[in-house]
Amino acid sequence: MTLPQTQPQPRPQAARPPARPPAPAPDALPDAPLGVVVPTLEAAAALGETLAALRAGAGPLAARLFVVVADGGSTDGTPGLAGRLGARVIAAPRGRGVQLGAGAEAAIADGAGWLLFLHADTRLAPGWGAAAAAFIAEPANALRAGYCRFRLDDAAAPAARRLERAVAWRCRRLALPYGDQVLLLSAAFYRALGGFRPIPIMEDVDLIRRIGRHRLVALPADAITSAAKWRRQGYLRRSARNLACLSLWFAGLPPRAIARLYG
Q1: How distant, in Å, are the alpha carbons of 45, 120, 158, 184, 207 from that of 177?
Q2: Which residue from 193, 73, 58, 74 is spatially nearest to 132, judged by alpha carbons?
């Protein structure tokens, strides 16, 4: 009598451990060079103070910091001034997203393991370098991005203080720092995110949303932005227009249409 053959039963699979985040790339090591990317357009009046403040407050990062200025076609002598101030200058098509992306690629090609994106009219306050160095030294931050506190250089205007408080609330509750608060992240993380997209406006919000709330770190340092545009256009009017642009972005309006509203 032959016994019926039985099919072998599949062995139960062991539960897979949760996926680990990728290890930091070698170029994200704490002692890797820091490339500072500054997009410019007719920025000669502000650039000197911006770069002077950057270098004066660099502290422990001074020896490994270099600057890439991505110029969008200035006619006021910005490229020549940037070169005389020790920056590498590259030409890029006009548009902050395009310029930031071109500057980042140039900095990475020059060996940057970390990137800091800085607007031409924003001065970093003393002590920024120590705060940035502490952020860079933490291994987990190779997959995070740091940003600074927003400040305006209009000491006498109560409206400036109200706007600073509103921005602090926006960062705390909505996790939406803007480009004038700088952005510090490893080159490897920047590349993994896909970098800045070549859009004419909201390039900072677009990248911040891809970074995500839980990978953003507020640095104990101030980024002091020129209040000239707010004084010229009016604090209420400019703030309302910025809020309208943000709302239209989240509503799905194309960036080019938002750019026409922004002016």
Answers
A1: 25, 17, 21, 12, 10
A2: 58
Res 27: pLDDT:
52
State the CATH number of the domain containing residue 170: 3.90.550.10
pLDDT at 263: 65
Phi, psi of 40 (to 5 degrees): -135, 150
Please say if the pLDDT value at position 23 is more than 60: no
Closest-CA residue to 118 (of 259, 239, 223) = 223
Strands 145-152 and 216-225: parallel
Report the domain count for the chain.
Answer: 1
Q: Is 34 exposed, middle or buried (0-12, 13-18, 19+ CB in 10 A)?
A: buried
With respect to residue 9, please indicate whether it lies within any of the assigned structural domains: no
- Do the domain assignments include residue 52? yes
Domain that holds residue 167: 26-232
Instruction: Name which of 38-42, 102-106, 125-129, 246-250 the model is least confident about.
Output: 246-250
